[in-house]
């Protein structure tokens, strides 16, 4: 029990640090991209941030829904990325935590901040003062649209992720394999025996 608790504390602390670093990084990047651009391009950037959150949400859901057995068959045939797919499914809880909670929540926060910057830029360009009724209306409308697209996109993405979980995880695993084998960027320790094996129903 104590060992399990210590592992949970270690993982929670690590993910908190990662979240801090990624949030700062995303904030700096989004701020730099929005600086000096038109409100139309700013809106495009906001929706790209939302899309990032939706994509990672899909990966997180797919990781929990995917079955491990098909990847063992691929691994026995030495299919590129199969071992990485096994690692992802065996660590589905952590993958989902990172994709859904860390990246997903950061994307939501950053898109909200970026939306405020876009609304201000639009207000000024149309000759209205900051704090005016026009800015308030635009802010409400734009925030509502962003929220609707975010929630709707994730809802649609979850259905897609559950239906095509194995395919999604395999494609993600192949991408990770490419990074590790071609670009020499080590992301996973696939040689590790850690991780509880899941049965054919992914439980």
Task: Please specify the SSE layout and strand pairing.
Blueprint: H1 2-34, H2 39-65, H3 69-76, H4 82-90, H5 92-125, H6 133-163, H7 165-181
**Overall mean pLDDT:** 84
- The overall strand count is 0
Shape from CA axes?
elongated
Structural class determined from secondary elements: mainly alpha
Portion in strands:
under 5%
Please give the domain count.
1
The SSE order reads HHHHHHH
Q: What kind of sheet is the major sheet?
A: none
Helix content: over 70%
How many helices? The count is 7
> How far is the N terminus from the C terminus?
21 Å
Unreliable residue stretches: 199-203
> C-alpha Rg, in Å?
20 Å
Tag the structure with descriptive keywords.
single chain; 203 residues; disordered C terminus
Commentary on this structure:
The chain is mostly helical and 203 residues long. It has one domain (2-181). It has 7 helices and no strands. The protein has helices spanning 2-34, 39-65, 69-76, 82-90, 92-125, 133-163, 165-181. It is elongated and about 65 Å long. Mean pLDDT is 84; it is low at 199-203.
How is this structure best summarized?
Helix 1 runs parallel beside helix 5 (92-125) and helix 2 packs antiparallel against helix 5. The protein has seven helices and no strands.
């Amino acid at each position: 029990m104590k060992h399990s608790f210590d592992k949970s504390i270690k993982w929670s602390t690590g993910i908190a640090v990662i979240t801090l670093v990624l949030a700062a990084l995303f904030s700096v990047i989004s701020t730099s991209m929005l600086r000096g651009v038109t409100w139309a391009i700013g809106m495009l950037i906001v929706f790209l941030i939302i899309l990032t959150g939706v994509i990672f949400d899909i990966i997180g859901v797919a990781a929990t829904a995917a079955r491990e057995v098909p990847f063992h068959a691929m691994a026995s045939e030495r299919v590129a990325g199969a071992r990485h797919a096994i690692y992802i499914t065996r660590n589905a809880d952590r993958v989902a935590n990172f994709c859904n909670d860390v990246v997903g929540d950061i994307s939501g926060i950053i898109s909200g901040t970026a939306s405020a910057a876009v609304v201000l830029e639009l207000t000024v360009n149309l000759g209205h003062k900051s704090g005016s009724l026009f800015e308030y209306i635009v802010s409400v409308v734009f925030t509502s649209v962003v929220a609707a697209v975010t929630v709707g996109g994730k809802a649609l993405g979850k259905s897609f992720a559950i239906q095509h979980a194995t395919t999604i995880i395999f494609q993600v695993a192949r991408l990770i394999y490419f990074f590790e084998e071609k670009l020499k960027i080590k992301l996973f320790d696939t040689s590790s025996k850690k991780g509880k094996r899941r049965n054919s129903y992914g439980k």
